[in-house]
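We modelled the chain as a single entity of 129 amino acids. Its sequence is:
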Amino acid sequence: MKVLSLILLCCVLLNANNLLNDFSKYPAQIYQGKHKISQEYKCANTECRDINGKLVDLKINFAGKYSIIPHSCGTGCRFYSLLDKQSGNDDYMILSRFNTTPDTNNKDSIDILLSRKDSNLLINWSKNL
């Protein structure tokens, strides 16, 4: 997790429109081992649901072994978790600065995180509500 923290701190979170072609500049090796998921997710057939019973996609989409998972918590409310597919650990705090909870942090935008499974680059695109 310390390595991931460094990766996130080193990632430049700039305007998404200027960086979409830069993913290949920050390559990541794709984890090939057995994929693990937290027990908090309930999966049946090809669908998985989060702690709120909402459908989520648990595929690797960041830095070779992580799944950045957007969770919906109501109108204009979104929070992210980071699932390590190698260990199965799901971290709700590491991406918490991108959460939008209108009744709590009074943000007037939603942060959309853009990533690719084969890249260490994470792009934050803020969209006004």
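As a brief sanity check on the tokenised model: The two ends are 32 Å apart (CA to CA). The mean pLDDT is 84.
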